[in-house]
Amino acid sequence: MQNLFDFDTYSANITNFVMVYGMRLVAAIITLLVGLWVINWLNRVIFNLMVKKDVDISLRPFLKSVFAVALRILLIIIVIAQLGVEMTSFIAILGSAGLAIGLALQGSLSNFAGGVLILTIKPFRVGDFIEAQGQSGTVDMINIFNTVLKTPDNKTIFIPNGPLANSVVVNFTIEKTRRVELKFAVSVNNDIGKVRQILQDLIQADERVLPDPAPAIVVTDFAEHSLTLSVRVWVNKENYWAFFWDMNEHAKSAFEEQGIQMPVPRREMVGSASGPAPKAAAQV
Q1: Which residue intervals define the domain Mechanosensitive ion channel MscS in the entry (predicted)?
Q2: Do residues 258 and 198 lie in contact, with contact meaning Cβ atoms separated by under 8 Å?
Q3: Based on C-alpha coordinates, what's the Rg of the chain?
Q4: Of 62, 197, 242, 245, which residue is 20 to 30 A from 35 by alpha carbon distance?
Q5: Under 8 Å CB-to-CB from 45, ≥6 apart: which residues?
Q6: Is the pTM of the predicted complex or chain greater than 0.90?
């Protein structure tokens, strides 16, 4: 009876398997490690080239990420081919898996398409201050799947590109100039001409105010005890908040110096339910 366990045969088969597939595995690992190093180097070169060519700062991180993903997919295909896997079968399996993954990750694909749309239409760029999806902040980065905002108090907000591309976006910095509107409520007992002149002098004394369009001072509200004057002036976008804060402070000081009265609120005092309830107006 022939020995079922031929040690020499099995040893030769194992040795042959290790020699063939072991060398392929080692070559595949070396290819993977070298390929990852090359991809990282190419990413740096591509990014530096984009900086040198002055590519839009909004496109740089997005294109860098796309190149990195594409090169890694190509590397994986090369490594699998080195292991001796039939590429025709592998591509068929990859296509089926891609379809299944695509159906499972519809949201992510929507975000990717939204990122492409944002970078194509360019409703905002890196550095713009925007308001969208109930959030506001400065655009810090536009990635493949999301856009990163930095708030004035240094919070980081990640907004998915899909909903962002299909929502209303308010861009506060896309234009070079902005209109500042300030409202000042004063007592009806004041001389409206005097109040207007005080505000006019403050506007003329501030070099940040642009002459065109011309500044306007108009009455926008008139109540029983107060009237409201709105000051509308145009400034460069970088001066918006500085002028807004300064004008409020300077107007307060000027009103006090010129004796401009502020409106005094009135409150209706009603008697208790157990006794007579005469109504009397008392100033607070």
Answers
A1: 108-173
A2: yes
A3: 35
A4: 62
A5: none
A6: no
Residues 242, 208: contact at Cβ < 8 Å?
yes
Q: Name the residue type at position 90.
A: F
The SS3 assignment for 150 reads strand
Whole-angstrom CA distances from 6 to 9, 15, 145, 147, 211 are 5, 14, 58, 65, 101
CB 123 within 8 A of CB 132: no
Compute the distance between CA of residue 112 and CA of residue 91 in angstroms, rounded to an integer. 23
What DSSP string runs through 46-105?
Answer: HHHHHHHTT--TTHHHHHHHHHHHHHHHHHHHHHHHHTT--HHHHHHHHHHHHHHHHHHT
Q: Is 159 exposed, middle or buried (0-12, 13-18, 19+ CB in 10 A)?
A: buried
Secondary structure of residue 165 in the 3-state scheme: helix
Tokens found for residue 152? 């004035």
Neighbouring C-beta atoms of residue 206, cutoff 10 Å = 16
User: Domains in the chain, ordered, with CATH?
Assistant: 7-104 (1.10.287.1260), 114-171 (2.30.30.60), 177-257 (3.30.70.100)
CA distance 138 to 151: 6
